[in-house]
Amino acid sequence: MDIRLDATPIEQYAAEVLVTLAFENENGPHSLNTATSGWFDELRESKEFTGKPFEIAILHRPSGLKAKRLAVVGAGKTEKFNLTELRKVVGAAVRALKAKSLTNITLALVNATPEQISVAVEGAILADYEPDRLKTDAKKDEKRLASFCILGPATVQVALDRGRILAEAQNFTRSLVNEPANLLTPLKLAAEAEKMAATYRLDCEILDRERMTQLGMGSLLGVSQGSAEPPALIILRYKPAAAATTDHLALIGKGVTFDTGGVSIKPSDGMEKMKYDMAGGAAVIGAMQAIAQLKPNVTVTALIPAVENMVSSRAQRPGDIVTSLAGKTIEVLNTDAEGRLILVDAITYALRLGCTHMVDAATLTGAIAVALGHIHVGAFTNNDPFLGKVMAAAKQEGERMWHMPLDDDYKDYLKSAFADLPNIGGRYGGAVTAAMFLKEFTEDKPWVHLDIAGTAWLDDVKPFLSKGPSGIAVRTFVRLVTDWSVL
Ligand code: BES
Ligand code: ZN
Ligand code: ZN
Predict the structure, then answer these.
(1) Is 4 a catalytic residue?
(2) Which of 9-18, 149-158, 344-353 has the lowest mean pLDDT?
(3) Ligand 1 neighbourhood includes 373 CB (under 6 angstroms)
(4) Distance between CA atoms of 76 and 136, rounded to whole angstroms?
(5) Quick one: pLDDT band at residue 154, thresholds 50, 70, 90?
(6) Which of 200, 261, 302, 401 could form a Cys-Cys staple with 377, CB 3.0–4.6 A?
């Protein structure tokens, strides 16, 4: 897709379709009202267009403009309008227009700030993504955005590039998440990470089963033993040319390429969605793609434990006791609580690599969706100031996160008669006990856990996004890293 900025005055730009925003409670006439001989006034009077978010009206051959069409898109109330709304509104315009085969889109944002330019580009690229790689419809590419041009200040190329880098990274994550598990095995995910690393010059190392056995990652290996597909611990390293701090951030992502539940098998209804159980890992890989291009000045190591959780004669049984890399023994009371089992070995390995801070993203529990629905990510921590940074990054990026509790009292929910820890708690507070289990392995280093089980998959299409993988957490990760010293 061709993405660019142009400083040509709006009236003189010969666009296929020129998009402009209008608010619900706009004071006075729209800036293009006169040029279009009062079209905006007429529209409003007719109530055909009120300015509510994502509404759209199209005028053909607007008299005072060189554009072939003028599209006005509703931006809602001015007092509610912010960068997050702008990203959505631009996305909604793109999806509405490309559905009409209008694939060369020009957006008028004359006095835009650099941040507005970034999010407008993000909105367009994110809206253009369709989870249709495996559909054979020959015409599907005709409805992809061919070009996106912003009429605005020409001095903000950096902002345009940032938006493109971020949204392409998020779409890369979404495409990984959308791949079915027969095509995206743990080794295939590792190969995708390696390919990305080679393109963007990151260091990539894959620990195979043999190496993990040598190291003693019994917790991770126990999950993978029921699958014919070998596991992988994917490690991506970003090192700045000149680090501004000795901080070393680990980004850790759950990479279960398919979760049957194992012997504690899941019900078949909806099990097909368990291909998205690697959304945390994919978010980390996508974020690293953006980080490699934006070149922030903090050291980042990504760790993605990748396994398939299957049922077979070799599969782990309920009651099995495994020894984690940290040396703690774990009684596997439920083989479906596998995410925490692979994450703790990755956490211990991150600590051995010298990481000073850790953030993980994982589709860890159904319980987080019971608690927060599909709106907020559940955010847990052992260090409130560090969570404050992550939440500030999330807020800037319009990714909603909610601070969940992790008081020591919850530790009482994790008691095993035969091992140091069980891998599940009782009936209540499932998302918290899962987080508590992870916390036991963090050695009190600042750590944030993001449970994205409720937010990584959209069951319904939105005006500004296709259904399917959302790519949640990618932008928060990138913002956290690029703004490390100012958050
Ligand atoms: N991958 C699931 C969590 C999940 C559920 C993700 C729904 C996305 C949508 C995880 O491995 C799991 O199965 N967790 C169990 C934990 C339970 C056995 C304590 C759960 O949430 O039911
Ligand atoms: Zn599971
Ligand atoms: Zn899982």
Answers:
(1) no
(2) 149-158
(3) no
(4) 38
(5) confident
(6) 401
